[in-house]
Amino acid sequence: MNVVPTWSDIDDSPLESAEALERRLYEIGAKRYHNLHPFHKMLHGGKLNKGQVQAWALNRYYYQSSIPIKDAHVLSRFRDRNIRLEWRKRIEDHDGVAGDEGGIERWLVLTDGLGLDRAYVESTQGILPATRFAVDAYANFVAQRTPLEAIASSLTELFAPQLHEERIAGMLEHYDFISPKVMAYFKRRLDQAPRDAMFALNYVKEHARTPEERKAVCEALIFKTNVLWVQLDALYHAYVCGHIPPGAFRPEEHA
């Protein structure tokens, strides 16, 4: 398996401007975003079987369903109503509003289409321990660190649209059990993610005013890339290497 890049792979010189910060953030994305993980390459290249794709979708549901909780933590950090109004859109995008079922429901359409029982998916009983630990760590990070770091941790959305495009094309091409209908979550995020990412990027560029604050922004983004990366490490270890922990989803039991 590939190894997560170390700090030595990323320039660690002081960041003296907002423009330097933006360049560093994109460098982090180029070297640490989870599109580089071998599990994703297998997923998009048609190298997984249906059970392995089911395991990915099941575990990823815990992350998707936790995003509104994470974003509610962000909201709670700000007295500025304008920021709360802007950030609230993220909760509505995932939980849904009148006339829009929301991203969590669209993810359940995916797991339905993969043949997983919806009640089982929503229970999260079968997810990997590492999935739960990583996602909960992300929610706790947002709740406990500075508001600047909380917003900065969402900046992986800068890199998401390309990943979604690769996923839509690759999975539709390679898997006969995938249809355009079940890929609706990713199609919607092609529009939502850039909007969210630009707000967060502009926020950190404006409010990270010292080299130390800009470094904290970068470290928050690195933390988030690690949260995403370790979830794929766990999936690879369990469902490619075959080391499924007790109590976790076993595809043969849900065929």
Structure description:
By secondary structure, this protein is mostly helical. The chain has one domain (15-254): Heme oxygenase-like (Heme Oxygenase, Chain A, Up-down Bundle), CATH 1.20.910. It has helices at 18-32, 38-44, 50-76, 81-95, 103-113, 118-123, 129-144, 147-152, 160-174, 184-207, 211-240. Helix 1 runs parallel beside helix 11 (211-240), helix 3 (50-76) packs parallel to helix 7 and helix 9 (160-174) packs antiparallel against helix 10.
Order of helices and strands: HHHHHHHHHHH
Write the CATH homologous superfamily. Answer: Heme oxygenase-like
Which percent range fits the helix content?
55-70%
Can you count the helices?
11
Mean pLDDT, nearest integer?
Answer: 93
Rg over CA atoms, rounded to whole Å, is 18 Å
CATH architecture type? Up-down Bundle
Strand element count: 0
CATH topology: Heme Oxygenase, Chain A
Taking pLDDT < 50 over at least 5 consecutive residues as the criterion, the unreliable ranges are 1-6
Number of domains: 1
Structural class: mainly alpha
- Measured by DSSP, the beta-strand proportion falls in under 5%
Give the termini distance in whole angstroms. Answer: 28 Å
Largest sheet: none
Oligomer: single chain
Organism: Chelativorans composti
Function: Ring cyclization and eight-electron oxidation of 3a-(2-amino-2-carboxyethyl)-4,5-dioxo-4,5,6,7,8,9-hexahydroquinoline-7,9-dicarboxylic-acid to PQQ.
Domain Thiaminase-2/PQQC: 25-233
Catalytic activity: 6-(2-amino-2-carboxyethyl)-7,8-dioxo-1,2,3,4,7,8-hexahydroquinoline-2,4-dicarboxylate + 3 O2 = pyrroloquinoline quinone + 2 H2O2 + 2 H2O + H(+)
